[in-house]
Amino acid sequence: MRIGLQLLAGLLLIFALAAWFVLEIFVEEIKPGVRSAAEDTLVDMAQILAPLALADLQEGKMANGRLAHAFARLNQRPINAVIDGHLKQQTEYRIYVVDAKGKVLYDSSGRDLGKDYSRWNDVHLTLRGQYGARSTRSTPDDPASSVMHVAAPLREGDEILGSLTVAKPNHTLLPMIERGERQLLQAAALMLLIALLIGGLLVWWLNRSIRKLETYAQAVSQGEPAQLPHLYSLELDRLGRSLETMRRQLDGKSYIEQYVHSLTHELKSPLAAIRGAGELLAEAPPPQVATRFIGNINQETTRMQQLIERMLQLARLESGQDRERQAVEPSSLGEGVAAARQIVADRRNITLSRSLKPARPQHWDPLLVGQALGNLIDNALDFSPTAGLLAIEGEPTPDGYRFRVKDQGPGIPDFALPRIFERFYSLPRPNGAKSSGIGLSFAAEVARQHGGSLTLHNGKQGGVLAELWLPTSGTT
Question: Which of 102, 123, 271, 437 is 20 to 30 A (C-alpha) from 392?
Fold first, then answer.
């Protein structure tokens, strides 16, 4: 099956499942929503009728009082009300009044007069000054026979003399519920139709973009001049640029140009410093000045040597060399790496905190992993403020081991985050020292060679958090 049809089928399946879930949720919400609205109406009606019932109760005329006469005249004529297409001919309310002990004094249906209703929730709670309501099935095995009851107290001052309950069958609400369900089904069908149209347009656009990339790749493979097409999609544009980058790297030009250009740029500054110092020394300056210039020459040559050594080391690593795996306990390795930096931390008045939890030995290259972790610590030391805290943590994970290095430095600027792992890219240190810009790229390559990952991001309270995770197997 073509990718376009697969995508269309997937989209339709997703939309169908989403529509089904929405329908399930809304249908389940319609019924309680309508019942809540009906209950609100019953509360209002009970509160309106309560003063009328109270007067009849105090006069001892519940059987032939004003409330009884009002309900005797109810439904003598059809209502003929059309509500949302449903014809309503008569009301279906039932009203009963009980005294303070819960005995039924009046029942509009006439069937429970004199019975004890004190244990029903609507009566029981209302006579105690609480909100009383209940929903009871007239036929225990039939959910559709449920009747909603809402009561209001008959008060004389602070004394409750009885309660009035208004009841209405829930089946009278079914027409509104069914109408809502029909509207939801119609909306779901319309949504699926719109999803089908959108999915068709998306598939057409995706197939068109893929055909452009296919044409471009064929032209490149045949050595024909071709311009990378603009695909109006971030992901597809990235894919196109990745193909272009792969083509350049296969030619070998991009890789060589990058190393030569970067090396030339990095060596230019120390060579200029050495040349300047040599020219000044040729003029026979005073001994103290000559000593200072000789120190500059030694410093710059050391820097050049370190740069070349790190480049060679990184090149060997990228070529797959120096991968001698052996069993190593992660916390012991981390402790050794951190201990080697303790002197530097003490000299800079930086507290080196270590919390490395032991784990079973891992199959790693200890030299490379140690140097990668050391590069992270060195980088954190360079950016840590005086009297700051640098935390080195380690803990086993279900499938490997994770090292964390947290400093209290200024953090990584937003513009530098995308380039932080590039070769020769480095940020100026607070103390003015220069870096080769290879340490982080070396650490990232070590993580990749071991099948792990390296991430750097700014902490929530400042500083930078570096996380080096290596899997248990240590293989890619």
Answer: 437
